[in-house]
């Protein structure tokens, strides 16, 4: 519900030109910049349409897509309110999927295409594609059937058929790995043929629908200078399908006895990962996790080194597969690690004890995204009794979002918390840590609480409430013998 409200707020703020709110939603709430509404329009399109120059510049700099010769790019240029906006867009025509800001998981999905730890190579008219059987099998029943049958033991597969070309095949692989597809408009028919052969009906439908939109757009704009040359598919449903498919890999990697810990208690009979697709085993307190090197090596520098045997912790099983014994980690926590590595999702139902262990383990395994996700779960559990503990935790692990939410919570509940010894102790510690502090110097925690008190002001009623809270803070400082 909150996510939908944030998305609606982003669209509204772009139409109004509220740059501060747009920045807040993008940076603090991490709202997707390239989301679409029911009219297939993006936040950038509305900012262009309404002529909000600063918002347009900010969105572009933050990763909003506006590639030249694409449907979205040409639509923004055509719909821009004035030539100033239009020129800004044209200057950003070099923005591509390779230079856009991404979150860590998007970057991971892109890096999968680099072929690290690949176990099969496709050759299409001389062009090599180093890919992973586990991913292709998870994404397409056609590939799954082939790798269980005639391609099972093959390392090189030549598919140089006259009806396909390497660019179209590249687009198909891009889609299977990322849920997103870019293809030259001239290759659409070939990609459609591949989608049909690989049993990808949703991709086929999306391609056909997008092609119709482009045709209708160009027909309605007879004076359009630049024709659409690139077709882009980025459907939330297709991205969701990708997450679901990789989620199946995650469940298969976890021993059946632990699957209820990763939210898969409804899939206890799902078979474990096929051994011919597995290339590493992690053994945790007697539990065997059947995994895939590429996911761990690309998600974490720790696992990358571990899989390279830099720590000398791997042993070879009789079938030649590396077996790595993981020590000092609870099996349920490692199951949550595996789930995150594959899906980028944290198990929100974990008890707080295990959640804190997961946070610490994520720090050890160099998984900052998981740390932030744990921080968000903790933020959703804030109470008067635990907020100060979580604030210290946020500071220790440098979880900025959790820290800000702790300050916001304290600001909202300052009346109840002002007499708490733990809060007073934290204020005094912050005051002591300000090097060479003078009597009138600011105190970090007080500055942040005051900021969030004033941030909540929306009308006269909330202004009066904020003034009362600021007086409480002043009284508290006076009681502690501080002036800030």
UniProtKB/TrEMBL annotation:
<dbReference type="Pfam" id="PF00651">
    <property type="entry name" value="BTB"/>
</dbReference>
<feature type="domain" description="BTB">
    <location>
        <begin position="118"/>
        <end position="185"/>
    </location>
</feature>
<dbReference type="InterPro" id="IPR011333">
    <property type="entry name" value="SKP1/BTB/POZ_sf"/>
</dbReference>
<dbReference type="InterPro" id="IPR036770">
    <property type="entry name" value="Ankyrin_rpt-contain_sf"/>
</dbReference>
<feature type="repeat" description="ANK">
    <location>
        <begin position="39"/>
        <end position="71"/>
    </location>
</feature>
<dbReference type="Pfam" id="PF12796">
    <property type="entry name" value="Ank_2"/>
</dbReference>
<dbReference type="GO" id="GO:0000151">
    <property type="term" value="C:ubiquitin ligase complex"/>
</dbReference>
<protein>
    <recommendedName>
        <fullName>BTB domain-containing protein</fullName>
    </recommendedName>
</protein>
<dbReference type="InterPro" id="IPR002110">
    <property type="entry name" value="Ankyrin_rpt"/>
</dbReference>
<feature type="domain" description="BTB">
    <location>
        <begin position="278"/>
        <end position="350"/>
    </location>
</feature>
<dbReference type="InterPro" id="IPR000210">
    <property type="entry name" value="BTB/POZ_dom"/>
</dbReference>
<keyword id="KW-0677">Repeat</keyword>
<keyword id="KW-0040">ANK repeat</keyword>
<dbReference type="GO" id="GO:0005737">
    <property type="term" value="C:cytoplasm"/>
</dbReference>
<dbReference type="InterPro" id="IPR044515">
    <property type="entry name" value="ABTB1"/>
</dbReference>
């Amino acid at each position: 519900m909150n996510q939908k409200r944030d998305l609606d707020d982003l669209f509204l703020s772009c139409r109004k030109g509220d740059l501060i709110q747009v920045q807040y939603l993008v940076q603090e709430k991490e709202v997707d910049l390239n989301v679409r509404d029911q009219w297939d329009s993006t936040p950038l399109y509305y900012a262009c349409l309404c002529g909000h120059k600063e918002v347009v510049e900010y969105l572009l700099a933050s990763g909003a897509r506006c590639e030249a010769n694409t449907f979205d790019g040409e639509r923004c240029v055509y719909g821009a309110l004035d030539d100033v906006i239009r020129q800004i867009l044209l200057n950003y025509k070099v923005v591509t999927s390779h230079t856009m800001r991404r979150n860590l998981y998007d970057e991971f999905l892109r890096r999968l295409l680099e072929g690290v730890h690949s176990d099969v190579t496709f050759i299409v008219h001389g062009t090599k594609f180093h890919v992973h059987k586990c991913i292709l099998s998870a994404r397409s029943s056609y590939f799954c059937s082939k790798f269980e049958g005639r391609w099972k033991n093959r390392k090189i597969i030549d598919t140089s058929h006259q009806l396909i070309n390497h660019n179209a095949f590249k687009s198909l692989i891009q889609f299977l790995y990322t849920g997103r597809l870019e293809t030259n408009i001239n290759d659409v028919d070939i990609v459609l043929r591949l989608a049909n052969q690989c049993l990808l009906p949703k991709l086929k439908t999306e391609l056909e629908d997008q092609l119709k939109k482009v045709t209708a757009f160009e027909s309605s704009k007879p004076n359009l200078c630049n024709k659409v040359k690139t077709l882009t598919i980025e459907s939330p449903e297709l991205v969701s399908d990708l997450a679901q498919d990789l989620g199946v890999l995650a469940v298969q990697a976890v021993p059946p006895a632990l699957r209820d810990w990763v939210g898969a208690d409804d899939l206890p009979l799902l078979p474990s990962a096929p051994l011919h697709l597995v290339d590493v085993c992690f053994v945790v307190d007697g539990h065997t996790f059947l995994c895939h090197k590429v996911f761990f090596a690309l998600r974490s520098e720790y696992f990358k080194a571990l899989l390279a045997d830099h720590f000398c912790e791997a042993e070879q099983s009789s079938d030649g597969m590396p077996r790595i014994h993981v020590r000092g980690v609870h099996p349920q926590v490692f199951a949550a690690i595996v789930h995150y590595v594959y899906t980028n999702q944290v198990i929100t139902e974990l008890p707080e004890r295990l959640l804190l262990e997961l946070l610490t383990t994520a720090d050890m395994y160099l998984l900052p995204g998981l740390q932030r996700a744990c921080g968000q779960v903790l933020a959703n559990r804030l109470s008067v009794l635990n907020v100060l503990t979580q604030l210290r935790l946020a500071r220790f692990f440098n979880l900025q979002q959790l820290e800000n939410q702790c300050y916001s919570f304290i600001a909202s509940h300052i009346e109840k918390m002002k007499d708490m010894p733990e809060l007073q102790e934290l204020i005094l510690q912050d005051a002591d840590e300000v090097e060479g502090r003078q009597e009138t110097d600011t105190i970090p925690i007080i500055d942040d609480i005051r900021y969030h008190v004033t941030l909540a002001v929306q009308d006269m009623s909330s202004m009066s409430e904020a003034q009362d809270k600021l007086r409480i803070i002043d009284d508290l400082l006076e009681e502690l013998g501080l002036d800030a």
